[in-house]
Amino acid sequence: MEDYLTRFLQYIHQRNSGSAHTLDAYRRDIEQFFAFLHAEGIESLEDVDRIVLMNYIASLRMDEQGRTRSSTTIARKISSVRSFYHYLNEYVGVLNDPLQSVKGPRLPKRIPEILFVDEVRSFLDSFDEQTPVGQRDRAMFELMYACGLRVSELVSLRLDSVDQEEGLLRVLGKGDKERLVPFYASIGERLQRYVDEVRAKWIGNEDHDILFVNQRGKGLTTRGVQYIMSRQCDRCGMNIRIHPHIFRHSFATHLLDNGADIRIVQELLGHASLSTTQIYVHVSRERLRTAYEHAHPLAQERKKTG
């Protein structure tokens, strides 16, 4: 079983360029499944049937400390085992698929958190561009919003990722898929000033082409970006939980709010499936409903009487 797991993880890494975090999650989930099988006296993956799977799913309801697991966690663990069996069926020759008729728990649709445009402006304007750090941070976070970047994509940017002449950013996304995202002129100017006036001084003797660096000339990490964002939120008094991905959510929602075609937004985000992008249509509709109920006098009246 362990040999199959090792081969499966190699397959996931080669096929999807899975991050270390993703591979660790797969490993933990499937090792937990193996532990259940061993406890049940099952030594072969061929011997796992639907009843065994249903008993395994039932065992997931509680964690090792006796706490109830969330439906999201259970669904992820089932999905990991399902992917593992798909691999075994396709590449190893294991014939049975005990998950064929097993469904995970139904999950509620989660609406992504977003910022309104004036909140984005307030956050970006809160950086002091008279200081080198403020100059870098303003350029960095505005680029995230301007191009809908994941934080992992941001910290992976290189100097040659920015095409100032064409106004295009070359982004290496999930699965090493490259996409081109346009950016507007003012953020291009900010980036160039940061590169010329700040990065050039900080880079020192470092020999790399990472775009966003700290004061020691080292590339920023995803955790470092998260820390900078959280600290700035506290400084400017934003009363919402904020995280780097919120700029990506806001980017997509604001484009759709302003009439962008959903397939264009899909391409700009680097989504493989249109259904992934469609969640932002729901965000726009929810914002529309909220604005309507807040502004319409009879809707307000009904809420009061209700």
Automatic annotation (TrEMBL):
Keyword Cell division applies: yes
Major place of residence: cytoplasm
UniProt-annotated catalytic positions: 150, 174, 245, 248, 271, 280 (o-(3'-phospho-dna)-tyrosine intermediate)
InterPro entries from the UniProt entry: CB, DNA_brk_join_enz, Integrase-like_cat_sf, Integrase_catalytic, Integrase_recombinase_N, Integrase_SAM-like_N, Tyrosine_recombinase_XerC/XerD, Tyrosine_recombinase_XerCD
Residue span(s) of domain Tyr recombinase: 110-293
Keywords recorded for this protein, A-Z: Cell cycle, Cell division, Chromosome partition, Cytoplasm, DNA integration, DNA recombination, DNA-binding
Residues covered by the Core-binding (CB) domain: 1-89
Subcellular location: Cytoplasm
CDD domains cross-referenced by the UniProt entry: INT_XerDC_C
Subunit structure: Forms a cyclic heterotetrameric complex composed of two molecules of XerC and two molecules of XerD.
Described purpose of this protein according to its UniProt entry: Site-specific tyrosine recombinase, which acts by catalyzing the cutting and rejoining of the recombining DNA molecules. The XerC-XerD complex is essential to convert dimers of the bacterial chromosome into monomers to permit their segregation at cell division. It also contributes to the segregational stability of plasmids.
Record family assignment: Belongs to the 'phage' integrase family. XerC subfamily.
PANTHER family documented for this protein: PHAGE INTEGRASE-RELATED, TYROSINE RECOMBINASE XERC
Name of the molecule in the record: Tyrosine recombinase XerC
Organism lineage: Bacteria, Bacillati, Bacillota, Erysipelotrichia, Erysipelotrichales
